[in-house]
Fold this sequence. Notes:
It is a single chain. This protein has about 450 residues and is α/β, with parallel strands linked by helices. It has three domains: about 10-90, no CATH class; about 105-330, Rossmann fold (3-Layer(aba) Sandwich), CATH 3.40.50; about 340-435, no CATH class. It contains 18 helices and 14 strands. It has helices spanning about 10-15, 25-35, 35-40, 45-55, 65-95, 105-110, 115-125, 145-150, 160-175, 180-185, 200-205, 245-255, 290-315, 325-330, 340-355, 395-400, 405-410, 415-430; strands spanning about 110-115, 130-135, 155-160, 190, 210-215, 230-235, 240-245, 260, 275-280, 360, 365-370, 375-380, 385, 435. The strands form four sheets. Strands 1-9-8-2-5-3-4 form a seven-stranded mixed sheet, with helices on both faces. Strands 11-12-13 form a three-stranded antiparallel sheet, with helices on one face. A two-stranded antiparallel ribbon has the order 6-7. It is globular and about 80 Å long.
Amino acid sequence: MSMTVNSDRYRKALACLEDFKSPRSLVWDCLHRLTQEDLQCFGMDFYFYRLNFFSLLGKYRSLAEINDLSGAAVRGRLWEGWSTYSSGASMLDQERQDHSLRQHENVFDQQLHGGDVQRIRELLKHGRGLILCAHHFGLYRYLPLWLASKGFRVCTPLDQTSFEQSESGLRQMRTSSTGWARSIADNITLLDVEGNFSLKPLLRSLRDNQIVLIYVDGNTGADGPFGESAKSIVQFGGLKAQVKNGPARISAMSKAPLLEIIAPRRGQSQESSGDVCLGETFLPPCQADRRDREEFVEQCTQHLYTFLEQHFAVNPEQWESCRLFHRWRLPKDAVPLPESDRTTQKLVIRDILSRGQGFRLNVNLMVSLSMERDTWIDVDTLRIYRQSSYFPALFRVLSSDEGLRAKWIGQQAQDSTWEGALIETLAQLVSQNIVVAA
């Protein structure tokens, strides 16, 4: 996918993000000066956020609002990723200058407020460990550090990229500190679930009465994010999605209680902190047959996504994994148009064009996946439509203010065969509600 924008704003922001010692105010200002076009230079995230916000919120939000949400989500993800590691580097610098533990006891309490620590301790009294189920939402990156700062031993399975980044940060804390930061890092064990993964270390942590913190919406495991094992179908935002049910399955296997947790960010400033919110507790059946265990897994998994949906409804731009939702969502089936109906449809199209009317892309169904507007996706079926060499400007004209009209066809037509093929293509798009009369 070509990116045609490479502005000074983008280059300056990228340079700031690559330096964890950049002034916070400078990084914040650079990110918030970026236009939507600039944000698209950071990869496909902007388009995928827009696609999934559109599918989940399109009935309630305008396209302009969804574009704004998509921009806010990309900025938020870039900011929180940089800010977490910058805070770690700053904490180490402070500890080198002042070895007093008391100076650092409330560092993570300043980042995350609330959190019923006593409730967590009570659940650990079961002696079977505790599975905390979080999501990639708000200030989720701070949760392992916040828990470790309270003295809890935490084991966290991560995807390969997150594992490598987080392990690098913890390694620096262990090697650069002999005090409070070192004790925090020593309380955290990370597992790479996409590498040579085994459940044994995770189950061992539960047997040792530790906390296992799982990011449920990571939707990955030993078979990767596209694997078919251990999945459930859940309802989310009025749509169906097929998601990994590993956390509930591990709870049923180990008999460890499971607790929902999330860390929404307060406000939208560079100094924004967050709240630790605990949800429901789920106790697996102690003695149950296979049917009861499967029922627990299905019900528990749905509850975890209902909990996320409640927070998503309030702050949709804080859900980072929304950019991946199309991977799990079950698309609707496209219904092909019978040949007899297609013939009638082509006659109707010719009649509409002859009367000076035209056709446009259905903006309630189609979302662009490129700045050039030559690649589009149907949000219902998740079918992708790309510009063909035969009709190189078709989608651009269909998405223009004027739309496609007979005049444009007359200017583009090479011969009667070309025009017939175009009408055939339009008939297919109209039948699927992808293109509508303008």
